[in-house]
DNA sequence: GTCGCTGCAAAGTCTTTGCAGAGAG
DNA sequence: CTCTCTGCAAAGACTTTGCAGCGAC
């Protein structure tokens, strides 16, 4: 099973916190804390990638070959995590969504149209302008996302 | 059939141009100019909405009940138009894409999470920052898009 | 024990594809 | 005429759902 607490790298504490928050959230809503949910959260946390439901499922099967987690459970858990604002989904031109932990700092994305890689960035200036625009238009902003499409350094060879 | 040239409102000239560009593009690629393609382009132009393939198809069926345009043709034409950079697709959290004419001025989107309505805006400041960021990260920018999610004025009642 | 959760498979969506006939150039 | 395009229906890809047994609390 997911032996999370033995992982004493830099991010361990963050994860413990995340996990704890998740447990509290579950309890509040009379939901159950299951191994599947734990593994999905941990895998999302461990992976720096932006994962599709399918790639997340594959990753989990690699890491825990003995466990059989159904793809349906992955979808159900991702929906739950998204509703709870623990993860965020990104959808690009391509079909399907990618998920990432939303608890990490907010950021925007540079997406390479050649290799599909995603680079993250934050720009305070843009964040501020977004607030202003929403205000000006009487819009009650909940969230925002920005993508820049182009060709990344590596693919410009 | 699509009696486009009799539409003498403000936007007619723009449309004539658009149509012409499209014809040239088709010729260049040894593709054919068909009634279906014309109607799809015209409907996209006439509608101020951001259309899904399905809603576009419905609109066309309303406008031209005698013509039977298959949904497959709508998809195929939208792909063609997108490849040719005549339309742009937006994909949000929800499933499915929405298309809009890309020839119009660039702009970003405010999306209401209640009613799904889309408001457009442009902010020069943000545009500039985006260029800077792409440059700084060695990214060859081709395009970008920004969405602000929240609750629109009307839905805040 | 209860009641939510899971895996499986079946059912839904949305989108793409194969094909024979229609139609643009 | 040729060769692309179209509509139809079938196939695909991705996601959701129903259900019986399992497992957290």
Overview of this protein structure:
Two copies of one chain form a homodimer. The first copy, chain A, folds into two domains: 12-103, Winged helix-like DNA-binding domain superfamily/Winged helix DNA-binding domain (Arc Repressor Mutant, subunit A, Orthogonal Bundle); 105-157, Dna Ligase, domain 1. With 157 residues, chain A is of the alpha+beta class. Chain A contains five helices and five strands. The first copy, chain A, has helices spanning 12-28, 35-46, 53-63, 71-83, 124-136; strands at residues 87-91, 97-101, 108-112, 118-121, 140-151. In chain A, a hairpin with a 5-residue loop joins β1 (87-91) and β2 (97-101). The first copy, chain A, is globular and about 45 Å long. Chain A has a three-stranded mixed beta sheet with strand order 4-3-5, with helices on one face. Chain A has a two-stranded antiparallel sheet with strand order 1-2. The A-B interface holds A 89, 91-93, 97, 110, 112-113, 119, 121, 123, 125-126, 129-130, 133-134, 137-153, 156 and B 89, 91-93, 97, 110, 112-113, 119, 121, 123, 125-126, 129-130, 133-134, 137-153, 156. The structure holds a DNA duplex (25 and 25 nucleotides).
